[in-house]
Design a protein that fits this description.
This protein is α+β, with helices and mostly antiparallel strands. It has 4 domains: 3-252 and 260-273, Aminohydrolase, N-terminal nucleophile (Ntn) domain (Glutamine Phosphoribosylpyrophosphate, subunit 1, domain 1), CATH 3.60.20.10; 276-357, Tetratricopeptide repeat domain (Serine Threonine Protein Phosphatase 5, Tetratricopeptide repeat, Alpha Horseshoe); 361-460, Serine Threonine Protein Phosphatase 5, Tetratricopeptide repeat; 466-536, Serine Threonine Protein Phosphatase 5, Tetratricopeptide repeat, CATH 1.25.40. The chain contains 20 helices and 17 strands. The protein has a 6-stranded antiparallel β-sheet, with helices on one face. The protein has a 5-stranded antiparallel β-sheet with strand order 5-6-9-10-13, with helices on one face. α11 (362-374) packs antiparallel against α12 (380-388).
Amino acid sequence: MTFVQVLADRQSVYMCCDFRLTDSLTGRVVDNNAHKLVNVVPVAGDTPIPMLIGATGLGSLGGLPVATWIARQVVNINLPTLDAALEHLKEKLEPELLQVPDPRQRRHTLVVAAIEGTHTRISLVSNFEQIVNGRVQRSGTTQDHVMVTGLRPSAPFYLTVGSSSVPAETKQSLRNLVANRAGSDTVLSRLAEVNVAASTTDTMVSAGCDTAALHAKGEGRSRPFFTDEQQGDFIPPAFEETLRQLKLQLNRAVDADGKPLPIRAQQIAQGWVSGSETSLKRQTVRDPDDADAWNNLGAQEASRRKFSEARQSFKRALEIDPNHVVARANLAKRTCQDLDDAAAAIGMYREILDTPGPPPASWILKEFADVLTSVGSAEARPHYERAAADPSYPLGRAALARYQAVHAGEAEAAAEAIALLLRELANPEPWVLALAAHVAIVQKDYESAMHRLQRACQGNPTDAKIWLAAGKMSLHLGDPSSASYYLRKAHKRGANPAQFEHAYGTSLLLSRKFQGAVRHLARAHRLAGGATPATP
């Protein structure tokens, strides 16, 4: 057996499988280095369905390690739809299981988590387990046939398959992470922590595990969490199968004594064309009434600075589904930032608060509070406090601390809150660090502020606002050379033009490059309509 966790919402899915294989009858440990998670990401000519496939039950199929067997069935195989892939796995798995004479040793389940269009879908391919009403049900007897069951999550959803159980409060905290759009690294690390906790009470679960994530916007990530039990190579099964098909092999590095070193994939970031703007547009043509597809298209357009098109896509999503909270929140943000219409954005956020159903996610409350703060409304604070009360959303705590420091005259309390938060977080998200830098600036601790912004730039190298803030901080510290470096990075990533031109012109002025300084400062003056660009 093994321990498989699946965490998902409509557009993201995460999976975690431990590394241990045990004998299904005796419970004896067979292998602590076992691959049981296969990450299938489309490439040219491959299936368009990105999938995560985890296994629980038999450690080998067809004379191959179970993950190798899975990879042979799905990597670079033309399976045009998810249903075709599931049927293909069922047809291949059934005869393999029937070769095991003892039904007690024949129990096996493949857990398939996939992105189908713009939606996630969770399926079990099993001869003794099935998903019924959102729960995994086990049969008392092993069937001679393999069943395919599943669901499409409409809300944050968590299930486990295998030999361990998870407390109810832990399940809820995991669902909250997805609801609040926590970063992939944060979610995968939390799943790994749950796996470690399970290993302390269940000898059939290894403390080490493999994790992976897929997102409908066309991104993915995989990351193993090793312990001393995991020795030797660690090459993801799907990658290994691709190398085999191409007849390629990796050359090993050697240590000082000339001995070959293990090959280990520590972390892999992935992307595929199904999340591209062109592909999302095709999705809206295939299914013009898919509100999620229009929302995803808008998010992709906004990331490419096509703000007008993004707003139209969000509006189309809301025409289809007036209660699509995420699309309304996205439209509110774009309305405030692109059209400088805070009043209209505030109205949209109030509509979200009035929408029937569960309360809005903490990230929406935080963004609503940001808009209220921009117009000097004291109403912002209770929304920051509600967001900060969510233990799965550390950005809410950082945002409240920034509000306290910058707008409420509570710098000491804010600094203490930030210090506590950073002690609790092993790997703070970039915007937590950026907001922590704002608190340090109020405290006049400029060195700490610069250090936090540098870490934030490293953690999120595509965010123009963070690079712009780092450039302005370097100016404050009297380092125009570093400021120019950060500001050029910000400009390439689409920073606010007026703010960039003003800051960059200032950096050139301090570097005594007067001609360039005059040119950029004049441009900043024109872009700002004759006023000095404000610092956000």
